[in-house]
Amino acid sequence: MMHRFTRLLACLLAPAVLAACGGGGNGGASDKPPVTVVPGDKPPVTVAPGGDWLTIHSAALEIGMAEGQTSAFGMDISLARTPSKPFNLGIVDGGGLIASSEVLAGTARQYSATMRSSSDLQPGTHRSTLELRACEDDPRVCAKPLEGSPWRLPLTINVKPKTDTSGRMSFAPAMAEITMQAGQAASLTVEASTSTVLGEKVHVALIDPAGILATPLAMRTLSDRQFAATLVPAKGLAPGVYISKLEMRACADDAAVCHLPYAGSPWTLALKVTVLPADSVKPLPVLPQLGPWSTYRGNPAHTGYVPASFDPASFALRWQRLLAKEDGWATAPAHDNGLVFQGVVTYRGDRAALVAISEESGTEVWRTSLGLPSPVLTSHLNPPAAANGKVYLTSTSSDEASLWVFEQKTGKLLSRQKMDTQGRYALAPTVLGDTLYAPNGSAGGLSQFRAGGQQPAWSSALPAFADWTPAVDASHAYVYLDGRLYAMDVADGRLAYQVDDPDHLWPSYSGGTPVLSDNQFGFISDSGRLVAFNLARRTHAWTLQGKRVSTPSYAKGVLYLFNNTGNALEAYAPDSGKLLWTAAKLSDPADATWFDQLVVTDNLAFISSELSTLAIDLASGKTVWRYALGGKLSISDRGMLYIVNRSGRVAAIGLQ
């Protein structure tokens, strides 16, 4: 079988040595014994009887690849002496496993050979013997071989079926969905991640065969395993639904041509673009029984409960948006008076701002820079709270710690109060009436502020832990730190009482935020357990030793939580810890991750993972609705469900 022969280099060297490269053919075959592999401390060396003037620095070659792909591999060649006659070097494969080869001269006595496997090989194991020929004539013929030629090297190629590499690339979100009004602009950023590094020289591209998106579709390299692209619908799309499959290519050559794809390439990503009529947006009436989603998990008791019933048949995406191009990520939101508030930071982390978004349209109403010095420690821009016509935000770092108060309508900065938190993360401040509570203190602590956000009304010393905000009722502010529930009197901040957790195991420097029930119980998720405290008796009540138990939600005398590492939604009696029911299996073929976000209404539980959001009917325990985006959940007093993923994408689902 004759293979392609490529002459890449010819050098006339003293006294008269001609080095060339090639591949293919069975001409010049020799009946000499096969090469022997000699092991040692140095790389294995191959030699042949009578030809010890040339050595190949390689052991037997064994490579892996995927069906339909090609793979490059090589070896180094050294000459112990210079032959007296001009000669040509070439590689010949009699088994048909290589598509091309090349031999390059580094010096007069050092060469490197590169080969590329054939893309026609079927799944399985293929074996052949490569011949390195040194000939006075063409190595494909080699009628005049030099002494010792050819040198032989075993080659094994293991080919995996295409199906084995189809999961090498994953996308976030798992499906590219964009909803927009006719004539308006919209975009979606998609991240692609590989389970292994593709290669040293990889070229990636995203192809839209249907022409639904504006071109070009530029891919950004985030790391050797992560890539991103911003999808923008083409201008002039008429109202309707447009469906296609995007093709992501990873290639060793130009991705537009992609003659040399990497294993598994191309991968497909489902695309759906929904264009709504320009007049499709309807006003959002306020639901009188609901209040604003003012703080972490909605309210000062952090119950994650919304007192309303919703019909899944009425659910519809109203709008979705991404961060501005200069933004890198956003905090969890708060919403009040028809606005959604989020803190945002840039990709480079050198600027921070507070942004207000219209619930009606998803458009940005205002943006106020925090004016923090560059660079900002962006991981310490904490989520906002909203109440009393104001937005409250804390920024915490080793150099800069403040409580910010803004006007909701305009974004005007009303006050900025210096704080001291040792740069620890914090959840959103807790607002109850005209008082505000936030972690504050160089060695740990809690402060109460008036609604204006000026000097603290009081401060209470507490252990120094991060990632918490207090739960507050009419008499006490509660926080769980280092295995102990603390209750501070809201009148003066003095410690009213504390209750020990008898089974606490110190897991980290993260604190706990209690969930309060209306029957004087408090609940904490700690170290994979759920711990219940009787606040009226000031005692430990019971502990659920589950498997990664989540922070619960409390609604109408029932405690809801995730168990079994987020794969089971369960309901418990809050006073006794008795299991009341377990929802139907939460398996989702589009999402293999666990669920960890939970908001409960009168008839539904909304649950979310990184990739999807489900609605579970509380009467039947069955899934009645699904949306292909996961993240932080909240519900506004206008009946809007908000899903905010870790990249800052926001989807607003109308529940009315």
From TrEMBL:
Residues 1-19 form the signal peptide. SMART domains: PQQ. Keywords: Signal. Residues 304-447, 510-631 form the Pyrrolo-quinoline quinone repeat domain. It comes from the Bacteria. InterPro entries: PQQ_b-propeller_rpt, PQQ_rpt_dom, Quinoprotein_ADH-like_sf, WD40/YVTN_repeat-like_dom_sf. This is PQQ-binding-like beta-propeller repeat protein. It comes from Massilia frigida.
